[in-house]
Design goal:
With about 525 residues, the chain is mostly helical. The chain has a domain at about 385-535. About 65% of the residues lie in helices and about 0% in strands. The chain contains 26 helices and two strands. The chain has helices spanning about 1-15, 25-30, 40-55, 70-80, 85-90, 100-110, 120-125, 135-140, 140-160, 170-190, 200-210, 220-230, 235-250, 255-265, 275-295, 300-320, 325-345, 355-360, 365-380, 385-405, 415-435, 440-445, 450-465, 470-480, 485-490, 505-515, and strands at about 520-525, 530-535. It has a two-stranded antiparallel ribbon with strand order 1-2. A hairpin with a 4-residue loop joins β1 and β2. It starts with a helix and ends with a strand.
Length: about 525
């Protein structure tokens, strides 16, 4: 043990150098150029350093799973400063001899790391906490850190296959790896052309495989949620291409694993009498995952659509059994509606009874349910619908819109409300102008005092002066995008102060209805999940 601690001290002093090249071992860390005769000695010196790391971390030679308990030397090596991130830039080639010890070191470091996001990921097993800002560490040197995270991801998935027992350390490490990938994808999306980045595609393929992994079915919804969050940061065309590639890979058995994951999610565990919140969360995560896979208009895989359709029908049966007041219904209904609306846009039939669906929706006034419902109605304006169902949909959507315009919501709900406004406006206009809405129904909708009150409120909102930074100012700007607010008023014959504004009501609503919504992963203290957004900006 004493020599382990000595080794650890040497390594940590090396890693403490401000320029990454300390002077403990001249042959190892001396700054050299390509013409220096000492350059040939440098790889050999680094090899000895790797041997020391391996001796400290696991003398027995077993490199997975991550260490749950650390001795003194291991604890200091893992927890001291930024030694682990330092190793990523020094040994950035996975072909380096003994580099597998770095993957083991990194996975152990991740396991003992704590970050504030997704507390249930990091605290569920009461693992030790290491207070490090993971995001800043990862983004300090993206090429090196992402290369190591990719290697750890590959290694962990490979070891899942041969591990007889799924230890908590596997799940925790995978969760943190996927959280790290979310950070990379945010940067990729905003700063570079992701289509030319091979690592981006490698991450995407591994995410798809992990989402349906047989060893992660029991309570893998947290991991799947992170995977969904990462995938929605990817352009839909790339997701579609990656999905086709994984489906075509016979070794991946993607569709077989997806079917088994779907079937498994609808079985009540033998230790339970009914579905638990964990079971409902698993169902929600699978619905959202399927929605991401089908979010591109060119998605033509019949097997994927069939699997999603059959799953929706079975989940609908479960929803009807649970009833509108069930907590489980509240958890999965939004994801159910999002996937249902996506399949409808693909012109794919799903056998559900609409009046039973309406009975589940109308008692729920939550925005995370109303928004997917609005997109479902918006995407099915071309279908004949019972007049009573049309009236119910109108009342539900109009009430939500009025709640937003009159600011009858909590501060926490305001961002979600702003995302909802464009589709609420266009859906209301679309129902009013749809050829499937009878004249008598249309007259009732337009003449309703609730409608007239709403028109007055929207007009006042658009014409008022709002202080900068207020919700009213932000909402006013949202309604001015593509003149949504003015088009909304003109649809109902209200004179506006901008007569030159082009009318975008009926025909424009029809055009937008054919568009696939952009999926956004939204998170606040009471909700996290997919939200379909009408991408008009």
């Amino acid at each position: 043990m004493l020599h382990h601690i000595t080794y650890q001290c040497i390594l940590c002093v090396n890693g403490a150098s401000s320029n990454g090249h300390a002077n403990i071992f001249v042959l190892t860390h001396l700054k050299v150029d390509g013409m220096n005769e000492l350059a040939q000695l440098r790889p050999d010196g680094f090899g000895h350093i790797l041997d020391i790391i391996q001796t400290i971390m696991q003398p027995e030679g077993t490199l997975f799973p991550p260490l749950d308990e650390l001795d003194v030397a291991q604890c200091v090596l893992v927890r001291w400063g930024e030694f682990v991130p330092w190793t990523w830039s020094i040994w950035n080639d996975p072909r380096t001899a003994n580099s597998e010890v770095l993957r083991f070191l990194t996975s152990t470091w991740l396991y003992h790391l704590n970050t504030p996001l997704y507390a249930s990921i990091f605290d569920a097993y009461n693992q030790p906490n290491l207070a490090v800002d993971l995001r800043s560490v990862l983004l300090k040197n993206i090429p090196s850190s992402s290369a190591m995270i990719l290697q750890v991801f590959q290694e962990t998935l490979k070891n899942l296959e041969c591990s007889q027992v799924l230890l908590p350390s596997f799940r925790i490490t995978l969760n943190k790896v996927c959280w790290s990938i979310v950070q990379y994808f945010e940067i990729y999306l905003s700063h570079q052309d992701v289509t030319s980045d091979d690592r981006f595609s490698e991450f995407g393929k591994l995410l798809l495989v992990a989402a349906v992994h047989s060893r992660l079915r029991e309570d893998g919804y947290i991991l799947r949620d992170l995977i969904v969050e990462a995938l929605v940061l990817t352009p839909t065309g790339i997701v579609d291409s990656l999905t086709k590639s994984v489906i075509a890979d016979k070794k991946a058995l993607f569709m077989t694993c997806l079917d088994e994951t779907i079937r498994h999610s609808l079985k009540i565990p033998s230790t339970q009498d009914e579905f638990s919140m964990t079971n409902f969360s698993v169902i929600k995560s699978i619905l959202e995952f399927c929605c991401v896979l089908l979010s591109h208009p060119s998605c033509g895989d019949a097997g994927l659509k069939t699997a999603a359709s059959v799953y929706l029908e079975r989940v609908f049966t479960l929803l009807v059994q649970e009833g509108p007041d069930s907590t489980g219904t509240t958890v999965i209904l939004g994801a159910f509606l999002t996937l249902l609306g996506t399949l409808r846009r693909h012109k794919y039939a799903v056998n559900i009874i609409e009046d039973e669906l309406w009975a589940l929706i109308t008692p729920n006034c939550y925005l995370d349910i109303t928004i997917p419902f609005t997109h479902y109605v918006f995407g099915t304006l071309d279908r004949p619908r019972d007049p009573l169902l049309t009236l119910e949909a109108w009342d539900h959507i109009l009430s939500t819109f009025r709640m937003i315009v009159d600011e009858q919501m909590t501060d926490e709900e305001e961002p979600l409300a702003l995302l909802a406004v464009p589709c609420l406006c266009y859906t209301i206009c679309g129902i009013s102008s749809s050829s499937n809405t009878s004249d008598s129904t249309r007259f009732h909708l337009r003449a309703s005092p609730w409608t007239q009150t709403m028109l007055l409120s929207v007009g006042q909102l658009l014409d008022s002066e709002w202080p900068d930074g207020s919700f009213g100012k932000t909402l006013q700007g949202r309604l001015q995008l593509r003149s949504i607010g003015r088009a909304f008023l003109k649809e109902f014959g209200v004179q506006t102060s901008e007569e030159e504004t082009e009318s975008r009501s009926g025909s424009q609503s029809t055009a937008w209805a054919a568009q696939f919504p952009r999926l956004v992963y939204y998170r606040d203290s009471s909700f996290s999940g997919l939200i379909p957004v009408l991408d008009i900006d």
